[in-house]
Specification:
Distance between the termini: 24 Å
Strand content: 5-15%
Oligomer: single chain
Number of helices: 13
Number of domains: 2
Order of helices and strands: EEHEHEHHHHHHEEHHHEEEEEEEHHE
CATH superfamily of the largest domain: Metallo-dependent phosphatases
Structural class: alpha/beta
Shape: globular
Radius of gyration: 22 Å
CATH class of the largest domain: Alpha Beta
Number of strands: 14
CATH architecture of the largest domain: 4-Layer Sandwich
CATH topology of the largest domain: Purple Acid Phosphatase, chain A, domain 2
Helix content: 25-40%
Length: about 375
């Protein structure tokens, strides 16, 4: 059963998101990290590997711009721990003239508007305190009041209560207090951008659909933030649109012949030469497509997806994959992809999937980069 009632004792009114800067130029060092999905250990490991934090978790990245492309929550139990670390790093990086850009992903938005299918039970457990049972009881009473008034066919008995308590366990109410529109984390997410441009590179979680009318970066950011301040989402919301920037997968999966012409026009529109995306999980590999115009970086860092360990490094305009601690230059054209994968394969503890990609490339004269993704 989907809960449709508004819990008055939880409701907090949020102001419109604050719109920060969305374009930077002259940045010498950029690190881009994909979806984290609640895995704190992997988060710390990749941040350490990229020389952004020391063993204590303190920022050592200097003037580096870190871009985390969204999807911090869900799938794993430690989302709040990661968020608290990143919130602190946002402040300390600025003191060092660096920057931590945290983009909005579809899972941030889902947590705000109440699609909690992928919340790990450990997230609720981590939020329990001495008042959790009382909050749960108050929530249950409000629920029963709503059911009694609106769904008279529902039988409210001990079995119903047991099922309800399992569906909304201790810690659930605390989770909604943080994430619902107007809650602390919802307000924080709304202050982050959906799309940014650094130098000549766009960064976004899912992708910008090049086949649809192109909104300005500012318009996209303002629209997503405004929508996430409303409940429920308005009809036709950009936030939940399959073709919108939080969900679009065409840049990661569509073939060259259908995507490239529109992609070229889209990049020209935004005065960019590359777009970096997460969302569509690769099989552990930073993956350039369309001669490096698109770079997909969701390598499945979280244990839920196999504990990939790679991130994108851009230094003085040159692109590298840092793959399990080894620097591997990204190819500047699709012709170099096979050589790129051959360099990565020996670095992987289980290189079978990379070897499969190499085998497909040897067997086919066309690129097969779309075969290394899977949808999540």
């Amino acid at each position: 059963m989907i809960l449709k009632i508004v819990l008055v004792f939880l409701l907090l009114q949020g102001n419109a998101g604050a719109f920060a800067r969305d374009t930077w130029r002259g940045v010498e060092r950029i690190v881009a990290i994909g979806d984290l999905h609640g895995d704190y250990g992997q988060f710390r490991d990749v941040m350490t590997m990229m020389r952004l934090i020391d063993e204590s978790g303190a920022w050592i990245g200097g003037k580096t711009h870190l871009v985390q492309t969204g999807d911090i929550p869900d799938r794993g139990p430690d989302s709040l721990m990661i968020i608290r670390d990143l919130q602190a790093l946002q402040k300390t990086a600025r003191k060092a003239k660096g920057f931590v850009h945290l983009l909005i992903g579809n899972h941030e938005s889902m947590n705000i508007y109440g699609d909690l299918r992928y919340v790990h039970p450990g997230e609720y457990t981590a939020l329990r305190d001495t008042q959790s049972a009382n909050r749960q009881t108050d929530y249950y009473r409000q629920f029963i009041t709503y059911i009694t008034a609106n769904e008279t066919e529902t039988v409210v008995d001990d079995a119903f209560k047991t099922q309800w308590m399992n569906t909304y366990p201790l810690g659930y109410v605390e989770h909604r207090i943080l994430w619902q529109p107007g809650g602390e984390l919802a307000r924080w997410v709304r202050k982050n951008n959906t799309v940014i441009r650094i130098n000549d590179i766009l960064f976004v979680h899912g992708g910008i659909n090049p086949h649809q009318p192109l909104l300005s970066i500012r318009k996209i950011n303002k629209t997503i933030s405004a929508e996430l301040g409303k409940t429920p989402l308005p009809d036709g919301a950009l936030t939940s649109a399959e073709e919108g920037p939080l969900w679009y997968r065409g840049l990661a999966k569509n073939p060259r012949e259908s995507e490239l012409p529109a992609l070229v026009n889209m990049l020209e529109h935004y005065k960019a030469n590359h777009i970096v995306i997460g969302h569509t999980t690769t099989r552990g590999v930073i993956n350039p497509r369309f001669d490096g115009r698109v770079i997909t970086i969701d390598v499945g860092l979280a244990s839920h997806y196999g504990s990939g360990m790679a991130a994108l490094l851009i230094e003085n305009g040159r692109f590298f994959s840092i793959h399990r601690g080894t620097i591997v230059p990204l190819p500047v054209s699709d012709q170099g992809l096979k050589d790129y994968y051959e360099k990565i394969a020996p670095l992987e503890p289980n290189p079978d999937h990379v070897q499969k990609i190499i085998g497909l490339m040897e067997a086919q004269p066309v690129t097969v980069e779309s075969s290394i993704h899977f949808t999540k």
